[in-house]
Structures are given as C-alpha cells and as structure tokens.
Amino acid sequence: MNYSFGTDEYIYFILDKYSKTLIKIAFSYMKNTADAEDIVQEVYISLMRRGNGFESDEHEKAWLIRVTINKCKNRLKSAWYHKSVPLDEEISYLPEEESEVLSEVLSLPAKYRSVIHLFYYENYSIQEISEILRKSTGTIGTWLSRGRKLLKTKLEGGFEI
Amino acid sequence: MSREKYTSALDQLKISENFNEETARKMKAVISEKKGITRYAMRTAIALASAAVIITAGAYAVSLSGITAQKPGITIAEVKLPETNGNVNARMRPLFVYQNRIYIRYSTEIASPDGYTVSEEDMQNLRGDYLGTTTGGIDEWSGDKDYINDFSSNIGEAEVYTVKGYDSKYRLMVYTPYEGGFGCEIYDSFGGLSMNSGDDYFDLLKLKGNVVSYQWESFDSWNNGGMQKVEQQADDALNKFVKALYSSTPVERSVDTLIDETNADGQKFLYLRTKDNLITPMRLLKDGYVYVDEIGFFQVDKADFDEFYGLLQ
User: Which residue does chain B place closest to A154, by CA atoms?
Assistant: First the structure.
C-alpha cells in the first residue's frame, strides 16, 4: 500500500515496516541499541528532508539501509563518538549460547559483521549486498568468506551449522 | 546452529517501546518545518494530502527509468490516472487541473530566508493574477472524467494564481492563507512537453540571465541528508554553464544505469536561485549529464560542463 509521502499514515507505515530491520543493522555496527536507535532516528529524519522520489519499495528500502550504514560508519569514525566512550550492549538477558554467538559476531571487524548480518539475518544475496553497500560482488564475497572463517575459529562448528 | 542463535538473539533485542512514536514526532516536525506552516496549517495539509491522487506506474516508469538507448529528444511523461483501481502500485502526488492541464509539484521551491517560511515580499513579487480556487474531487480512484473540470484537485481548497514572469501554461502558484500566515507553492505542468534541446525546458524556468546565486552539495551530503551546501554568487562560470544548459541535448537514459555508472564522487547536487527567489535543483553527473528529477537527462557540452563542475570543490 502506498501512502502520500509525509502524511501521518505514511510515517507510521514506514516506521512499522522498517524500524526493526534498520535498528538491527545499526546495532550490528554500533553494538548497542541506544546508539542504533539514535542513528535510525536520524535516518528517518534524513528521509523526510530528502523527500519522495523512490522508484520502488525495494529502492526505498535499499536507500534506508545504505544511509543507516553510512551514518553508523560516520559515527564510528567521529572523534566525538570515541571520546564519549560508547558502552557495549548489556545483553545478559539473552540465553547464554545466544549471547555468546552474538558477542562473537559483534567482535568481527565492522565490514565483515555487516555482511554477515545482511546475508544471514536479512537474507540478502551477495549481489543485493553489493548494490546496497556499493561494493563489487567479489569484495562482498571475500568479506563474507573471511567473516565466516573468523567465526569458525571462535564458534564450535562455525557459523552456518 | 550458531546462525540460528544469532538470529534468535537479534529477535530478542530490546528496542525502546516508544521508538516509533518518538521518531514519528520528529519526522512530523521535519515535514512541518519543510512546509513552513503552523501546527494549525499542518493539520489542514495532512488532510489535503490524504486525498492524494496517483500517477500511473507506467507514466512514472517512463519518467524515471526511461529507455537505456541514447537518442536525442525526449518527451516528459504525462500524468495519468490508472485505468483500473485494482492494484495501487503508484506514488500519490498533490495536483490540480486547469484548462485541461494537470499541474503537479515538481522540484522547484520558493527560497525560505529562515529555512522554514516563504517571505511575504517574495510571495507578493511572484503572485500574479487570481485564476480560481481548487476544490476536492480527485481521489485516488477517480476516473479521467474528473480531470475535465477546472480546479479539480486533491489538495482541497486553495487559491490558484499565475506566477509573474512565467508562462501560465506551464507554471502556476497555489496560495493558501491561514490564521497567522500562508502557504505558497509552485505547481508545474510539464507533462507531455517535447524537448529537442535544453532550451525547450530551461527557458520555461527563465534561468538565463536570472540566476543570482547557487548552492551545491556532495553526493554524500545529499545522500545522508547532511545539508552541507556551499553557497556562491553567480559568476561568469555559472552563467556560461546556464547557457550550456540551454544548448544541451535531452537524452533518454536510465536513472539506475547512469547512477550505477557514476560513483558517489562523480555526482554533485546544484541548486540555482533566480532573482525571484525560486530554487531550481538538479543533479550533475561528471560525464557531462544534468539530471532534473522527473524531467530527464540533458547532455551538456563537455568542456562547459567540466569547467563548471571542476569549480565545485
């Protein structure tokens, strides 16, 4: 269903549709939900400022994901962010094994964990990830492979099984 | 089973219960600021927008996707209603009808001195003759018959005026007074316009000799909503570039193809401000193309393009 851009209906529709996805992607970079939520709010505000003009829902979603990732990268490299000593997420409420797997994925270099997240959690193909991140499919394939190998050394049986 | 545990862990992630509500509030504030209207007028605007009309997916696709083969001369897609109401797969746009032409919001905006509102002086300088007042009557399921009546619209009641200095066949103003202020927007009717040279389009915008300043921003700034615009006064290089726009060649190109071919460093966004304080945005692609949203691509003389593009540093 398409709502007129900027109306209440549109705003609530798009929040319901994408918030969880975007927050989890941001979390995979920032490692805590407070920063992830903060960034996703900025993304939605950017969307309002950008205005309409997406050719399809897929284009809209890809834009939202790309901007989320860009904002995460920008924040991670900002001096202010590093001075503020961001806290890692308190995830003690998760079952032990799940907490352990999540911690290991989050310990990967950012580029590997983002590809792992988009591939395994969002079920994007390598081709789709390459379009979202604007990297070649070869690069994405390499990052995915290296991420998997690193996880294999840390998680019994690796990541996929 | 690590993958499943990762998925399960993320599914259990605690997201603030009021995230959507709080974010919605901020999003609405941006929309309100962009429109430069009061809370009172905002309610009206949303009510009007909710009666929006749609552009057929076909027409929209023609406008935005085009055809990948390059050939000179293009026709701007006409706005049409869908033949059936069975499958809503199109974007809704504010519009009204006047003399069998459909006027919609393209990308031209009136400058806002404070970033939020249009000045009374600018509005007075632009507002020409009163033509009539729009009515409701077009909703998303309307058939073509609704377009026959002048001032049928999906924007509720709003006054329509000519715009001083512009051809009313292509450009009109919608003016909405409200308690404590007014709303004022430019509506254009470019659908069906055949362009064999840039002159066919840009002359309707009266750019030549009228641009007083311009702003530009990088792709990253635009893409991230950074608003990091650099402002400069019009100079010889700009005037030469505008002249080149008039002699440019409209070409049918795919937006996706061109953007795929052009990396982020090869795109800049340009905003031209004319004497009457109208802002005309366009996207510059370093290979010598200028893209105007929903209008199309213009291939500009490479030397003129490169000279100006190179200054945007």
Answer: B2
Which residues, in sequence order, are CB contacts of B48 under 8 Å at separation 6+? B94, B154, B155, B156, B158
pLDDT at position B70 is 45
And the tokens for B110?
A: 């009136």
Contact A94 B9 (CB under 8 A): yes
Is A101's CB within 8 Å of B264's CB? no
Share of chain B above pLDDT 90, in %: 42
pTM over 0.90: no
DSSP class per residue in chain B: THHHHHHHHHHT----TTHHHHHHHHHHHHHHHHHT--HHHHHHHHHHHTT-EE--HHHHHHHHT--SS--B-EEPPPP---S-SS---S-EE-EEEETTEEEE--S-EE--TTSS---HHHHHHHEEEEEEE-EEE--TT--GGGGSSTTEESS-S-EEEEETTS-TTTEEEEEEEETTEEEEEEEE--TT-EESSHHHHHGGGT-TTTEEEEEEEEHHHHHTT----EEEE--HHHHHHHHHHHT-EEE---HHHHHHHS-GGGEEEEEEEETT-EEEEEEEETTTEEEETTTEEEEPPHHHHHHHHTT--
CA distance B196 to B205: 16
Candidates B1, B4, B5, B44: best to mutate against A (most CBs of A within 10 A) is B5
- What is the maximum alpha-carbon separation in chain B? 72
Out of A74, A121, A159, whose CB is closest to B10?
A121
Does A155 sit within 8 Å of B2, measured CB to CB?
yes
Say if CB B81 and CB B142 are below 8 A apart: yes
Looking at the predicted structure, is the pLDDT value of residue A125 above 60?
A: yes
Strand partners, A107: none
Residue B261: the pLDDT is: 63
- Radius of gyration for chain B, computed over Cα atoms and rounded to the nearest angstrom: 21
Which chain A positions have a beta carbon within 8 Å of B34's beta carbon? 48-49
Distance of CA B61 to the CA centre of its chain: 16
Q: Residue B144 pLDDT more than 90?
A: no
User: What is the structure's pLDDT at A78?
Assistant: 57
**Contact: A98, B5; criterion CB under 8 Å:** yes
pLDDT greater at residue A25 or residue B57: A25
Find out whether A22 and A43 touch, Cβ atoms under 8 Å: yes
Chain B residues whose CB is inside 8 A of the A99 CB are 9
The Cα A25–Cα A106 span in angstroms is 11
